[in-house]
Amino acid sequence: MNSQQVSCETGPSASDFLIASKDSELKNLQYFLQMGKVVQCISNLVHALQCERGASNVFLGSDGGKFSEERQTMVSRSDRLNEEFNQALGDIHQELTCHPVSPTLLNQMAAALHALDGLSGLRQGVSAREITAVDATGHYCQLIQSLISVVFEAADVAVDPTIAGPLVAMVHLMNGKEFCGQERAVGSAGFSSGHFDSALSERMVHLIESQERCFEVFTSFADEDSIRLWHQLLANPREQEIHRLRQLGVSIGRYKPLDPSLADEWFRLMSERMDDLKTVEDSVEGCFHARCTERFAEARNSLAHQETLIASLDARTTASQPMLVLCDSGKDQPSGESWASDGVGQHFGRSIFHLVQEQTQRLKDMNDELQGAREALEDRKTQEKAVLFLMEHRGISNDEAHRVLRRLAMDQGRKLPDVARALLSMADVLK
Amino acid sequence: MNSQQVSCETGPSASDFLIASKDSELKNLQYFLQMGKVVQCISNLVHALQCERGASNVFLGSDGGKFSEERQTMVSRSDRLNEEFNQALGDIHQELTCHPVSPTLLNQMAAALHALDGLSGLRQGVSAREITAVDATGHYCQLIQSLISVVFEAADVAVDPTIAGPLVAMVHLMNGKEFCGQERAVGSAGFSSGHFDSALSERMVHLIESQERCFEVFTSFADEDSIRLWHQLLANPREQEIHRLRQLGVSIGRYKPLDPSLADEWFRLMSERMDDLKTVEDSVEGCFHARCTERFAEARNSLAHQETLIASLDARTTASQPMLVLCDSGKDQPSGESWASDGVGQHFGRSIFHLVQEQTQRLKDMNDELQGAREALEDRKTQEKAVLFLMEHRGISNDEAHRVLRRLAMDQGRKLPDVARALLSMADVLK
Asked: Which SMART domains does the UniProt record give (chains A, B) (predicted)?
């Protein structure tokens, strides 16, 4: 009978790996607690850069006549927030790079930092008025996009649904707000020149629609408090005013001149809207932080509890017979079967079995819950891929590609991500 | 102009994160190099346990008359391979648990180790003939499944397509081989009793079909050498013989008695088949190891190369003006734009820019390539979920649930994973 004894002395035991599994969850949460600080800094910095972009636009559009002072104030604020961002990165650099979460997230961080390195040059160009408003806007847009992409990648690696949800809400809110900022710039260009040509009008339509879709996803993942703030924003009388001006921008023909004084009103209204959106962002960020802290405390307690439990089980059964309790890996029968030759050690076996099974079930439930967040991000990626494919395939602009996709979805009565997926599935035969 | 200078001294730089991104890839590969050893041990141990299960079945089926010696030999071999598995785990325990890859993988490891703890009890039951052949088989199956699931979870966390592919091939081959082992047991039961009742026949059909589907996925992910071995296996005259016996098992009515001496032939043929499948497994394992080593060396060289490059760029441009090169995050224009106030530092900017962009493109390509492997695993998970749903919803067995799904797919002329997905999408309204 001796040869039938399985030697388990040489390697780590089931309980070692159970503890390691819990511990790995804990490390992930810790990582996101720290990522939260970075996300907050990015949200602040992006807002400051959006203000700086707006002021730079007015400055360049007025040939340096307007907003010279304001712009300097905003530049200083961006610098201060960039400093904070750098400090936050310095604080967690060790953690971010030692815990090798995702090469993609780290590389996106590199891209964002590199884009920030170009900021002084851009500002010099603006100060010296050596760059057009359109080009300056383009550069600011890319810089801001590279920062938002960091949050996107962070959401993409989150494995805990309670924290992935707020991150998905956050990144869609940030994207929506950025479309709003771009709409402000497009509207300003139209109103101040006294007319919208069809390109400007179309771009405005694109930005309005893109914004709305982002906010839709935001509302399906945001917490109640943030959604309440969002509804308050929508109920603000300012939104009616914005709607009225938007109508002028998207419907008026190029031959009907507009009152150029509308430009100031438009800029003011849209800037207020963006400040309000920032308040919603802060609320989402607060919720994200609260959930991380909560889940972290929970996970730490659960780990400590299990360690105590396992230690006491180990102590009780050190010398007992090995016995048979087979774990159900979720593959076959819905519940685990057990077969024990006698009562000795049964308690130990059952308990470890239950702990492992409990963890299996928890991880499975979490994964199912995560599905929604994953799909939202996947949808975004698919659409971006479809847009890139159309741009390359037909040599059209980003806006046009978006329009083609939207028209396709409308014509077929299908959702945008479905149309994008269908298109990509045919990409190979279309090339 | 001073206030426009972005201070970047406080935090880590773009190159720090670029290096971190490369380094994170390297750590991932190192992890899989070590996981490879565990996968190899699991493949060996599973094969030994399958042999042990077969021998135990014959032993119990012959009331202890046959295979008593053989069984002891196989038990000793399993013990030796279990020992090796434990040693391998001991060697890499540190790495496995410090690099917090996936709580699910670690928990599955706990489940497998716990199942192994029950092996002695099971063997005692078999030796004393206190357990039926059917029950013993059931316990061995669950144990083996829990070990294969570890490989599945490992494949699920692989982010490098060159190593995810072989792992997907591996886990499907292992699963197919396990279905083959179960078919051997079912056939043995039928032939030795001289007839197949309809339950036995249906189970045999299920196992044959499941095997074939696994091998299909295997062939779409395996390397050429392994596929060649697989074709050699199929061309072996033994396969004709197996086919003939299978036909007897699945088509003969319960009233037509079979020659019980066929049992020995069946057992021998199927055991040979499994040994051949193990040879294919070894080849896949070899390919996996070779790819890991290759990719690891590649990644290490690339990291070293970039570090040198970045250091030389840093040295050349320490005192230069900051300038503007914006990174394209893949969001808008297909190529990055750059705008530099003058030539100073342009080389530096361009180079870091290109390095980051190169890494972005590489990670994107890798991710696209990974898609196929991900989908194969996702398909499997979806089918298992659909089967579990049917089992719970209609109170039917695992086999029946599989049959229902297959019939549905056949009737609708759709693929099994699609039918499973469609079913799950309706699960909420069916509950």
From this structure: ANTAR
